[in-house]
Design a protein that fits this description.
alpha+beta; 4-stranded antiparallel sheet; 5-stranded mixed sheet; SBP_5; 576 residues; 20 helices
Length: 576
């Protein structure tokens, strides 16, 4: 009988072998993900894959308390005051906090962080909502020439007492919640400047306006104040280790290893063997069938879902490679194929919502009336929804483009997130039902790396893409404006425009009364149902599964505002 390898040897295999697998040591959290990590720069973080890492390497001024969606508590801040009729926020910062570089965190670092985020605001990151709070606009200084260095410097600065002071142009009741977003984590000024990032001064501020932060030098060499520090990363493996200089409680788990494993079956096998503690699943159907009730597997169900997902139909497709002939001749589609309302309605009637709930969500899901979580204020439960109706779909296709769609047919190419079984299944359902209506209809679906899809969709290049929105902060505006406003975050992906909805959404932003905001959002939902810019995907009832020896996971600790799959930080987990 051969001798079992030591724990050190097993950890060495995990750290050095890339995608090779070995049994998970007791002091190591092993995660297997289906996707890559787009960025490790907080300022560029605007997806859950990046956020799940960044929120553990870095820290924000404020954090959500326990499992609450709205209650906040200090993290890098210790307290704050509000003055100037609700437009000035003054923060005391925690002392004794060190960056992973060993440097002490100061107010100058926090000041640098928020100025950098406002400067680099662009369509691929979440800094638009901070710019909106601090400068009164979602635009950056290239897009809005009224933004000057003086405005940026005045919006966030340190006072003589070493306090961080934010001065807003107008009241923003969601401002504190925005500060809890992982993308607003504090970074070190001197360290970043040494890497070649922005100096933090007026001298080079214009060169950083709108800059892409997804592949910065800071992304390749992260340096936060979090409980874990970056060790290394390659194409398949990310490694972090507990930071000995952390100001807070010492983590129980010394190491964290995340491996990219594209194949679901491979992830499942590793999980069942105990080689991985947590994995990306394949959706409820696959996970319940393959994993629930198996030895060593713990299952936590009926958790809140605060995301909203949709099939986005781009009304101005900018990628010629997805258009075929580029015409309505049966060999492709024109760039504005989805500009026709009847085309969009036809696709909405072609999706089998009940099948999706049954097959993908195993009956644990609900069809929402709008792209807003039903646990959020402002949700209209009485609104209308689409249903799978081939007759209605056929009729709409026959009207579309003056009858040319039905007569000529089309070839549509749509991408889905590689390794994501749920997205693939949704596209397969849509493909099957659309093609069944007319032999001239062809929907080609193909996998694509998530980071590439995010970049392409931000440029308006994806013809049809499944996107989910997880809240940056717990306010209905974060969903309603994101999806439905002509200058919302998803506008470049959908190119949807409607003046009436825009007017209602702008009014809601200036309205304090929740009942009045709810009334306005209901009007938006009714209007959107008629125009069908998206196919609203049924919302799942959330669940998580994990190796049963992994502690620190419960309904009481699960916070859906966290990006990491357990709804906690790594530092809160342990192995029994």
């Amino acid at each position: 009988m051969s001798r079992l390898p030591s724990r050190a040897a097993l950890l060495g295999a995990l750290l050095l072998a890339g995608s090779a697998l070995a049994a998970s040591p007791r002091d190591t959290l092993v995660i297997q993900s289906s996707s890559d990590i787009p960025t490790l720069d907080p300022g560029g973080t605007y997806d859950t894959a990046s956020g799940a890492i960044v929120e553990n390497l870095y820290e924000t001024l404020l954090a959500y308390r326990g499992n609450s969606l709205t209650r906040l508590e200090p993290l890098l801040a210790t307290k704050w005051t509000v003055s100037n009729s609700g437009k000035t926020y003054t923060f005391d910062l925690r002392s004794g906090v060190k960056f992973h570089s060993g440097a002490a965190m100061t107010c100058a670092d926090a000041e640098y962080t928020f100025r950098r985020n406002v400067l680099t605001n662009n369509s691929s990151n979440g800094n638009w909502f901070m710019a909106e709070s601090l400068l009164g606009t979602q635009s950056n200084a290239y897009e809005d020439k009224s933004i000057t260095w003086a405005r940026v410097a005045a919006a966030v600065k340190c006072n003589g007492a070493g306090q961080l002071v934010f001065t807003l142009p107008k009241v923003d009741p969601a401002f504190l919640a925005k500060l809890a977003s992982a993308g607003q984590s504090v970074i070190e000024r001197a360290y970043s400047a040494r890497l070649g990032e922005w100096s933090g001064t007026e001298a080079d501020w214009k060169t950083w306006v709108g800059k892409d932060l997804s592949e910065t030098r800071l992304s390749r060499a992260p340096n936060g104040t979090g409980a874990y520090r970056f060790v290394r990363q390659d194409a398949n493996t990310f490694v972090a280790q507990a930071f000995d200089g952390y100001w807070g409680k010492r983590p129980a788990l010394r190491n964290v290893v995340q491996q990219k494993v594209a194949e679901l079956a491979t992830r499942q096998q590793a999980f069942l063997r105990g080689d991985a503690d947590l994995i990306d699943g394949g959706g409820r159907a696959a996970d319940e069938t393959q994993l629930r009730g198996r030895a060593g597997v713990a299952w936590l169900d009926n958790l809140p879902n605060v995301t909203a997902g949709a099939v986005v139909m781009n009304q101005a497709i900018k990628a010629s490679s997805l258009l075929g002939s580029g015409k309505l001749d049966g060999k492709g589609i024109p760039r504005d194929f989805f500009k026709d309302e009847d085309v969009r309605r036809a696709f909405a009637y072609s999706f089998n919502y009940a099948q999706y709930i049954s097959d993908v969500l195993r009956g644990k899901g609900t069809q929402r009336t709008m792209l807003l979580p039903d646990v959020f204020p402002g949700y209209d439960a009485s609104g209308r929804t689409y249903r799978f109706d081939p007759a209605q779909a056929r009729s709409a296709f026959q009207r579309a483009w003056g009858g040319q769609v039905w007569k000529q047919g089309f070839v549509l190419t749509a991408n889905y997130r590689a390794g994501n079984v749920t997205a693939q299944t949704a596209m397969e359902i849509l493909k099957k039902n659309v093609e069944a209506l007319n032999p001239r209809f062809k929907v080609n679906i193909q996998p694509k790396q998530w980071s590439d899809m995010l970049d392409a969709s931000s440029r308006g290049e994806e013809a049809m893409i499944i996107l989910n929105w997880a809240p940056d902060y717990a306010d209905p505006d974060n969903f309603m404006y994101t999806y439905y406003a002509s200058d919302g975050y998803y506008a470049p992906r959908s190119n949807y425009r409607d003046e009436r909805a825009d007017s209602w959404l702008r009014t809601a932003r200036q309205t304090v009364s929740l009942s009045e905001r709810t009334r306005l959002y209901a009007r938006v939902a009714a209007r959107v149902h008629d125009l069908a810019p998206y196919i609203n995907l049924p919302a799942a009832v959330n669940y998580i599964f994990y190796r049963s020896n992994l502690g620190g996971i419960s309904a009481e600790t699960y916070n859906p505002m966290m990006s990491f799959m357990t709804g906690t930080n790594w530092k809160d987990l342990r192995k029994n």
